[in-house]
Task: inverse folding
């Protein structure tokens, strides 16, 4: 299950979106395709862009101190606990590495 410490973490200790201050995730603005590519790599399937809205609403609630509401916003996103966290972490690492090296996030989908 996704958690918010030390950032948005889908499992296996891999930080998907880092924090930029106390209870504040980095903005997704301009990084939407990268985040979707990382999620797709972690879950082994294409993740719908609508998930970004759930993440943004959850991040806002978490920033305001309402952890319960934050997790409620994440629940319908379909981002359940990773079936094989070790493999998911490996896929996340590789996807992050290649996108930082210039590979288009869309090619990860």
Result:
């Amino acid at each position: 299950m996704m958690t918010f410490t030390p950032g948005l973490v889908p499992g296996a200790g891999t930080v998907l979106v880092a924090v930029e201050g106390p209870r504040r995730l980095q903005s997704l603005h301009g990084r939407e395709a990268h985040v979707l590519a990382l999620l797709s790599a972690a879950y082994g399937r294409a993740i719908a862009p609508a998930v970004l809205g759930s993440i943004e609403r959850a991040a806002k609630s978490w920033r305001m101190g309402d952890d319960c509401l934050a997790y409620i916003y994440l629940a319908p996103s379909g981002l359940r606990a990773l079936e094989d966290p070790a493999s998911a972490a490996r896929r996340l690492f590789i996807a992050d590495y290649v996108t930082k090296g210039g590979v288009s996030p869309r090619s990860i989908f």
